[in-house]
Fold:
Amino acid sequence: MERLKELYIHQKGAEPASMEKLPGAGSNREYYRITGNDGSSVIGVIGTSQEENHAFVYLAKHFRKQQLPVPEVYAVSEDEMYYLQEDLGTLSLFDAISQGRKSGGLYDENERELLVKTIRELPRMQVAGAKELDFSNCYPQPSFDREGVFFDQNYFKYCFLKATGVEFNEVKLEESFRAFADNITSETGDFFLYRDFQARNVMLDAEGNPRFIDFQGGRRGPFYYDVASFLWQASARYSAELREQLIGEYYNSLAKYIEVPLEEHFRSRLQLFVLFRTMQVLGAYGFRGYFERKKHFIDSIPPAIANLRELIENGAADDYPYLKDVCLRMIAAQPKPFRHEGLVVRVFSFSYKKGIPEDISGNGGGYVFDCRSTNNPGRYKEYKNVTGRDQSVIEFLEKDGEILQFLGNIYPLVDFHVQRWLDRGFTDLQISFGCTGGQHRSVYSAEHVAHHIHDKFGVKVILEHREQKIKEILPAVGGSAMIFAAGLGTRLKPLTDTMPKALVPVAGKPLLQHVLDKLQKNGFNNIVVNVHHFAQQVVDYLSDTDVKISDETAELLETGGALKKALPLFGNDNPVLIHNVDILSNVDLKAFYDEARGNDVTLLVSCRRTQRYLIFNEDMRLVGWTNLATGEVKSPFPEIKALESETKKMNVRLFAFSGIHCVSPSLAKMMQSWPDRFPIMDFYIQSCKELNIKGIVKDDLRLMDVGKLDTISEAEAFINTI
Structure:
């Protein structure tokens, strides 16, 4: 940093007022914002590679001559390890479109316009940037060629594919790689290939115009690569519709600079480069994530895998059957982050004068209903300044019954559609109601249909009255569940010497993921997981999900203390299903959850043979616990406790606990008098006289406790049968 300061003093003739280190992402270079006494600032860079720094400085100066929007380089140290460049501000394109990214790809109009501006500017960078460019200055190589493709393919193989544990034939995969490399390098083109063209490397000026940075890895090559890099950036989650729009914008802009290939050929070649780019970034994510343990790259793996899955499904690898087979097996082996949202129904009201609402899901749209056949309040002066949400308009519309008859025909149709979408696991449905002004009839209809769907199916509904600029989100209604995952897993040593029990893999994915998948399938959307042993590993694993963490890092609270601490995290009055992380079963969790409503506690039990049993009376109410081997009995009921050592004479029923139970949140009050650390079964047994604790027996229950090393292979076979 001192040498950077010296370079600044030599350039400016004065010491800086401050030097602030900027956060890095994937680069090993260090960046500093250096501010002078006059308030002006520059960016100081400390590089780790002289050749890489030289490439950036040379390219930046060349691009400035071509009047391209890149930062000016002010000063460079003699050894080229330090340089000063123009400060382009703090707003990157990545940050400017963050809301769309965080919402899973729902980019608004302003965000889309920024993306359009950027993609339109890319061809000028590629074409004008290549003019009179001495590519020998590029790093680490001057052009996109077969050897470079081999390098990236092997990067993918060794840093990602092998790390997943998927078996493959080295010779067959190498044959696929060679055929792929021959194809992708068959038309290189005399263009500047940016190589790392992504939203993080685009800064925005005050007018929202793009300025390009971090192009030091560029070289001569085909223009397809950068389009693939930008539009298939893993974390961006661009919808198919938005990608199509941006591809069109790029293609039309490119036509201003060169004679473009036929669009069919363009799209075919682009798909090939998308597949290549996806494999390349997975290699990078594997190295930076799996080996260097950088969280940003680990977080990027699931969306990159989703991109690869989409490409394979669309036929991108059909010409390379062995590569396709390996990728499909690798995709199947990847843990899938828990997503609770499921189906989202978007309901709009709109004015036909302003066009039908745009579908942003990429699936082509849904229902559009025309409300103009019904009586129009807009023709009457007293309704000019109110909408279909106001009582006066509601009474007007319902008085003659036309709107009710209209919706009476729509409800069965949308009900059938929503149920089919839920059955098939689809995620998007759009329903739009239009009228003349988008103020009365369409607003009324959209309101009623949105609430009808939400009340009946409990799915997330986004209700938007476009012309009224009103948007309301009706959240998904689902069950609450807690996964006990904090245990030490001592019976699974030596695996648990380096990982928590929750992440022990069974049949290609962690135990935790098996439980999450089952909960998701059964409609649970409010999940808490407790952590203690190797807690950070579980936290990192769940970082791309909506699962809440109950942190027991400081002290393992046992099952009762864990539940006591976690209950406030649920934030509602729904019952809480509790599931041990090491339990696999064929239980219909939704049916059990529904059956448990009304009880203080409901225990799933079975007739399996064990030494320790729960004791129930004839009404299946819990009355105690016993150990048949010792004859010990625990119960708050004197008549049960009196039969200690004579358990077999009891007029009671004995069942084994399954590790799955359901509790009412009202238990939180009773637990306040208990210590922070206690077993939940002790609480149940001592409280069963005051609480309504019931047992449910499932005659067809098939359940397995994956608690020991020798049960893992057995568990893998068991999973295939449930």
